[in-house]
């Protein structure tokens, strides 16, 4: 049996989740981040989640240990090796993403796929910066990655049918449910989700209700697992703001204008769970 392998660039919230999902499905995973502390924290978090799965008797201790062993921390990008799939999951900054994608492209095997987990940067724009835009695709995972079933498979203008087909097969192989859409600002997920979050922030700013009440109304009335403000804290308020700015600029409609309170919170570095303070406190 041949060993399956892949690489993830970025060991943040999304990158570590993607690494865990592939390792649990038997892939040897090479996880790169330039910040050693990020890799260390990712390894610890994955270990904790695997231990929890053992406690809940979903996997055995041996399986947890084998999964953890399949994740290799790689501090230098050029050392990640060659793989048929490389997924980029770094900060939402086109210049940084393009730089890393260009550096990673020689490490994709012939016929392999280079993917981005971007939440809102144009796949067509990123694809235009690499040598094989036909082998480039959006593979958009959802937070928390080990729990959420969806992978939004985003087809750029030049993405080939074969790349889409293979990406769908890979997502299914690792237990996810892929759903295809075309490259357009915010794709489907964030074009629909972010206006709801933004509207909840406007309601809070205008004093229509307290944060807890806004979230409770959406949870109990709409059967959402968490309210929009708690969800914004989970995603990161800086990420929400960035996506809204993309929607506002690229779709050119006032209805996507980010709420001033959201801007203010990001300026104050109240970014949600990751800074332990957003619409709620996480002490
Ligand atoms: N990482 C890994 N697993 C996690 C987790 C995390 N951060 N948070 C919760 N979980 C797991 C728990 O371990 C638990 O698993 P278990 O059943 O094996 O014990 C399971 O999820 C349920 O967790 P809890 O019982 O603690 O809490 P809930 O039942 O309230 O579920 C939730 C938590 C899964 C986060 C749920 O509230 C939910 O689905 N929220 C909505 C999340 C969502 O909408 N995500 C999409 C965000 S948008 C996005 O990512 C796109 C981007 O582009 C912006």
Helical/strand content category:
alpha/beta
* Strand order, largest beta sheet: 3-2-1-4-5-6-7-8
In CATH, the topology of the largest domain is named: Rossmann fold
Give the proportion of residues in helices. 40-55%
Instruction: Report the CATH C-level class of the largest domain.
Output: Alpha Beta
Secondary structure tally: strands: 8
| Count of helical stretches | 11
Residue-averaged pLDDT = 97
Question: Your description of this structure?
Answer:
With 283 residues, the chain is of the alpha/beta class. It has 2 domains: 178 residues, NAD(P)-binding Rossmann-like Domain (Rossmann fold), CATH 3.40.50.720; 85 residues, N-(1-d-carboxylethyl)-l-norvaline Dehydrogenase, domain 2 (Orthogonal Bundle), CATH 1.10.1040. Helices cover 46% and strands 16% of the residues. It has an 8-stranded mixed sheet with strand order 3-2-1-4-5-6-7-8, with helices on both faces. Helix 7 crosses helix 9 and helix 7 crosses helix 10. The longest helix has 20 residues. The protein is globular and about 60 Å long. The mean pLDDT is 97. Bound molecules: 3-hydroxybutanoyl-coenzyme A. 3-hydroxybutanoyl-coenzyme A binds next to helix 2, helix 7 and helix 9.
């Amino acid at each position: 049996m041949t060993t399956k392998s892949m690489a993830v660039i970025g060991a943040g919230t999304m990158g570590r989740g993607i690494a865990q999902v592939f390792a649990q499905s038997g892939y040897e995973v090479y996880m790169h981040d330039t910040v050693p502390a990020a890799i260390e924290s990712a390894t610890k978090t994955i270990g904790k989640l695997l231990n929890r799965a053992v406690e809940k008797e979903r996997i055995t201790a041996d399986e947890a240990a084998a999964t953890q062993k399949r994740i290799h921390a790689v501090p230098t990008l050029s050392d990640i090796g060659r793989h048929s799939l490389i997924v980029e999951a770094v900060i939402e900054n086109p210049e940084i993403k393009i730089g890393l994608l260009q550096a990673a492209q020689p490490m994709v095997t012939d016929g392999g796929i280079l993917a981005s987990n971007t939440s809102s940067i144009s796949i067509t724009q990123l694809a235009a910066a690499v040598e094989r835009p036909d082998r480039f695709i959006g593979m958009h995972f959802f937070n928390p990655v080990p729990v959420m079933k969806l992978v939004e498979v985003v087809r750029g203008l030049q993405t080939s049918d074969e790349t889409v087909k293979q990406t769908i097969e890979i997502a299914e192989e690792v237990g996810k449910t892929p759903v295809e859409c075309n490259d357009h600002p915010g794709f489907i997920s964030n074009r629909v989700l972010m206006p709801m979050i933004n509207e909840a922030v406007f309601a809070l700013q205008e004093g229509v209700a307290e944060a807890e009440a806004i979230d409770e109304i959406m949870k109990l009335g709409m059967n959402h697992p968490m309210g929009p403000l708690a969800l914004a804290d989970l995603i990161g308020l800086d990420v929400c703001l960035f996506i809204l700015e993309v929607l506002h600029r690229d779709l050119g409609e006032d209805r996507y204008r980010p709420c001033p309170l959201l801007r203010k919170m990001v300026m104050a570095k109240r970014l949600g769970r990751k800074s332990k303070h957003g619409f709620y406190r996480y002490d």
